[in-house]
Amino acid sequence: MLAFAACVAGAAPWDLAPATPLLPGMRDVTFADGSIYRGTLKGSVLHGRGEYVSPYFRYEGDFVDGKKEGIGVYQWEWGDRYEGQFAADQQHGRGRYVYANGDVYEGEFRNGVINGRGVLVTKSGDTYTGSFVGGRANGSGTFRFANGDRYDGEVAHGRPHGRGRMVLASGDRIEGSFADGRPRGLGAYLFANGNRYDGEFVGGEMTGQGTIRYADGTRYEGQVRAGRPAGRGTLDLTDGSRFEGTFEDGLARAEGTLVRRDGTRVPGKLLEGRPVASE
Q1: Res 249: pLDDT
Q2: Where do the domains of the chain lie?
Q3: Which of 103, 106, 119, 120 is the most buried (most CB within 10 A)?
Q4: What is the model's pLDDT at position 276?
Q5: What's the maximum distance between 2 C-alpha atoms anywhere in the chain?
Q6: In degrees, to the nearest 5, what angle opens at C-alpha 75 toward C-alphas 65 and 56?
């Protein structure tokens, strides 16, 4: 017989429809725990098409030798609902799972668990299309977030994790390694304004050693914090000269050495991105 859950005291969370005349071959069976089955039987075993209602769940669909097999609809007492294929008493094949919280998954199931390729749309408007393992996004896929951001790449534990690319709603783009939904390790940040950062990410920010190529042709290489030059570094200028020193507040202020095009070196400072010799 079916491996249905034991009943609990109290009424079922849904109302049973008034009894209607049964079609030829159908039976109306009430079990000792109060569960009710209306459908076809093979001997004393549920077989064919029927509906089974208990305080814990309601199933309407196909049965084969006492087990859910074929196409059916299964609803839990807490409000989750599955529509799709069953095999050996479990969700197996393709189906649609509607969560009580408003999330919806459509795709593959294996042995009662979301596994394979599918699409998950959350109540908040985020969408994930890709592979699932053990009920969560795992493998590779695409996130389209409600705020306009998009991620393509490797996924683990339901979040961007591994190699991937994030395109932000602002037009900025991040390419590299991600961990727990944020960039980490080595990667690149391409700004919509034409600037580009290549280097380390820490805590989701451009922090560590890196190179910033500005749209105006200048190039900074050195220490970076929160996407701005901070610490020891070198700024190559468009006139062929360069500035070496300690940077503060991005390019707004720095102390160090100005190296002119002819190679001469003089003490200098950087003020609002402009080098000034101290001599």
Answers
A1: 84
A2: 1-116, 124-192, 206-279
A3: 120
A4: 85
A5: 106
A6: 80
CA distance 95 to 223: 51
Residues near 124 by beta carbon (within 8 Å), at least 6 away in sequence: 146
Pairing between β-strand 182-190 and β-strand 173-179 as defined by DSSP bridges: antiparallel
Token pair of 74 as six digits: 């299964």
Question: Rounded to whole angstroms, what are the CA distances from 206 to 104, 148, 194, 212, 251?
Answer: 35, 21, 16, 10, 16
- What is the token pair recorded at 153? 């790449």
Contact status, residue 78 vs residue 91, Cβ threshold 8 Å: no
Which two tokens mark 54?
Answer: 């208990």
Cα three-residue angle 153-155-158, rounded to 5 degrees: 140
Q: Is 75 within 8 Å of 60 (Cβ atoms)? A: no
Query: What's the pLDDT score for residue 23?
Result: 57
Determine the straight-line distance between the first and last CA of the chain, rounded to whole angstroms: 95
- pTM summary value: 0.84
Which secondary structure element, helix H or strand E, spans residue 186, and what is its range?
Answer: strand 182-190
| CATH match of 1-116 with 2.20.110 | yes
Q: Which residues contact 20 (CB under 8 A, 6 or more apart)?
A: none
- Give every residue of the chain whose pLDDT is below 70, as ranges: 1-25, 279
pLDDT of residue 26: 82
pLDDT of residue 278: 75
Q: Write out the two tokens for 81.
A: 């609902």
Structure tokens at 204: 């989701």
